[in-house]
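Progress narrative, work stream C.
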Amino acid sequence: MDSKVIPPNLGESFRHLFRLCVALNDADRDEAFRVRHDVYCRDLHWEAERPDGMESDAYDAHSIQCLIRTNDAQQQRVGCLRIVLPNPNNPAEPLPVESTCAQTIDRSLLDPRHLERRRLAEVSRLAIVHDYRRRKEEQAEPGTIQPRDFGTRAQPRFPFIPVGLFLAAFAVAEVLEIEHLLVLTEPRLAQHFNRIGFDIRQIGGAIEHRGVRVPSVMYTSLVIQNLRPMLRPMWRMIRAEIRRELAAAGPDALPWLPGGVHIPFPESGS
């Protein structure tokens, strides 16, 4: 991971290096699909290459894409992830991890089938372009965190890209009043995210899915409440930007939200 030396204020440093947006138009969504194609199809060969150079699936019809670009004149695409919401035409239809881990989810810990579906979503398709996954151990994963990404006591570092994308997912979930975020993750990534206050709780046995993966859940309100102090400036900056974008776009930007539920988009100045 192309982590950076930690400055006094993570929010200001992130703003200096990157621009993060919610893809609320076709051009931005296509950019996210191109990142996914570069990583999942060309780099990792997990999906077949597409003639149009964009990787997408049926879940993207009711997903929200988050995209990071460099904050410079080139505005190069760097990474993305998506938040999959329930199918508005069939809210009971399983989310991807519910299908993939149907036999391994421990329903005594959490049974997604019994949750209010509009308060449930899934975070998936984390993808970071090759130039930001330079180390050998990163080449086999679309986006990960290693212990060295946090540096040492003498020279601390920070993995801005994956952390920024997940903070964007929490900001979107907060606005849409989504409390349960499912994720199928590699165990190491969950361990390193827990280190900075992303409380990822395993809810079932491991499966083999492009490597060892475990079904897990993040509770939006708990993650926000328990973020480490050093992360809060970055969270406040990303949260404010996401809320401004959603407020400016209005509910019409997401017409397929499940059940036609009124979503309390914030005022621009909040």
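Work stream C, second folded protein:
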Amino acid sequence: MAFSRRLELKGKILAYAAGLIGLTLAVILIVIAGSRDVLRVLESAGWGLFWLVPLHLAPVLLESAAWQSLLRARSRVKLPFAYVAWTTAVREAVNNLLPVARVGGELIGVRLLRRRRIRAAVGAASLVVLLTLTALDLYLLTLAGLGLLLSNIPATQIAGPVAAGLLALLPAMLLLVIVQRYGKLFARLDRLIEIVTGGHKLLSRLVRPDKLDAEIRSFYGRFATLTAAAGWKLLSLAAEAAEVWVIMFLLHHPIAVWQAIVMETLSLAARAAAFVVPAGIGVQEGGFVLIGQLIGVPADFAIAVSLAKRFREIAFGLPSIASWQWVEGRHLHRLLHGGRRRAAWKKNGKCGSVSVSCRCRRIPCTRRQSWRPRFRPASPAGSQLRPQDQRRLRMSPAHRRSATAACSFAL
């Protein structure tokens, strides 16, 4: 436990230090571009920037469709699309607004899936596969953006280093997919963490690595499901690129579609590379300024685009985080309230016994088609059930009395 706390403390220090450096870089870029010019550009959009909040539903819903297609392939529990979309919004808000190094949102996503009776291994494996597909789609979009940049501006100086980096990254991405498909990536990673940390199995505390690897291999064995999820995610990234075009239109500086694609894809690649920096602060602004200079977008407009996206992240993310906290608080209240009720029943001697004479009722749940206990004090009649419970059981009175007398329950 002490080692986990020290590791968590070091992670927080690293995240805060990276965030401070990124914030300093962002402030320097704004000062160089001219703070008054940036504010003037943002004022030209006015209240139109609020349109970015509902428009962001498009990429969120498309990513939710990709995630749900993966979950339906391996889970018997059919989640409503609205719940998957809300969980996707919470994941994105946590990753964008909290210092969690772009992985805290995925942990929250697995936690919320477990609330709906989806196994942790299935939820974690679906997110691992979804992140891998996102990286592959982003790689393809970055190649497309680089190709558009070279076709319109052949004499650019940054194209050579970017192309060399993308070509060097291709074998690593293919190796990652092969290891996930045929190897035991997380089992070996858990053993490596145990060796490095001196016996602490940090990954095993969240999910069993062998089950996680098995679920990932089962996902990769479904080619049609992977193709559908990759297609939905590619459309989601394209919708985020369209968001840049809408922002430039609201700022009264319309650009071509290829320019919006280049700005969004290359900035996303830079932000993904600097995942340690919370919310990519400073990295996103620097990427927009650098790419804007190559495609003819002034620095003040590039900074304004980045700040407009920051505004959308806050306006869209804060309600998502607030709703998540409300759900967590409600769940905690139910746990505490239920614990007090069970403690009171044990004290009164009406429940908690494991003998055959226990009067606990086990009533079938018609929604999940499984048995679950209903915690309530026994009635004076003892062997009698409520009329609505009798209709659920569909038994004869004699059978019902014998089943109730034989019920036993251990807290």
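Residues 349-383, 399-411 have pLDDT under 50 and may be disordered. No further action is required on this item.
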